[in-house]
Amino acid sequence: MKVPVIVVLKRFKPGKLLTVFFTVFFCLFLTLGFWQLNRAHEKSILAEQVNSSASQFEASTNPSPYQSFKIAGQFTELPTFYMDNRTLNGQAGYEVWLFFETKQGRWLVSSGWVAGLNTREKMPSFELSTKPQAIEIIVRPDSENPMYGVDTNTPLNDGKSVWLVQSLNQQWIENLYPKKPLLGLAQLKDSELFGVGPSVWQPSVMTVEKHLGYSLQWFGMSIALLGMFLYAGFSRKQQQ
Questions:
Q1: Residues 165, 162: Cα–Cα separation, whole Å
Q2: Torsion (CA) 228, 234, 239, 240 in degrees, nearest 10
Q3: How does it sit in the membrane (predicted)?
Q4: Alpha-carbon distance 126 to 117, whole Å?
Q5: Smallest Cα–Cα separation from 74: which of 151, 149, 8, 129?
Q6: CA-to-CA distance for 224 and 240, rounded, in angstroms?
Q7: In the chain, where are the structural domains located?
């Protein structure tokens, strides 16, 4: 008596080329599906960090991106870094970065967005309190432009206290102003209330739900490919 599994295997003849094609793309689709699941998990952790309650920053703390902190100190109006090519509701403008001085050191803080002027020869003005205050921040990773590096950043006055920048990273800032320790780059929470305007920074472009949706698509494609492979393997045998 023949074993049913052996009979089924004898009837299944997909061919070498089809088997290679199936193996490559089936493994690819599964890999992409699990990768999207992993990205969804990472984004959920990131969202928890961004939305977590801010803790008081201590001198011994080693800040990592997306942590929230409460810090006390004051803004300085100069130097000012205007980050170029920042839009809000279709309007061109700049993201304004300013130093916030604390007892532990200084932060370079994105303090909000301001609309651009009709000319690029002059930067827009803004209003900001430089009195001592307590604020909440989210630690940001380096703000790098894939097209333009820090070498394209341009001083707009002789004293190099006003800059038009395309990219920002901690190393460049520390080299430019080495006298005081730089604790990191950060985003001001409630920038419309405590800063110069609304925030245009988002910690993540793609949501957890989108990553999960993409993972389901890749897994669905792998299941469909498996079905077509089995159908082709059995139908080919019948045709022969």
A1: 10
A2: 130
A3: Multi-pass membrane protein
A4: 12
A5: 129
A6: 24
A7: 4-44+207-239, 67-194
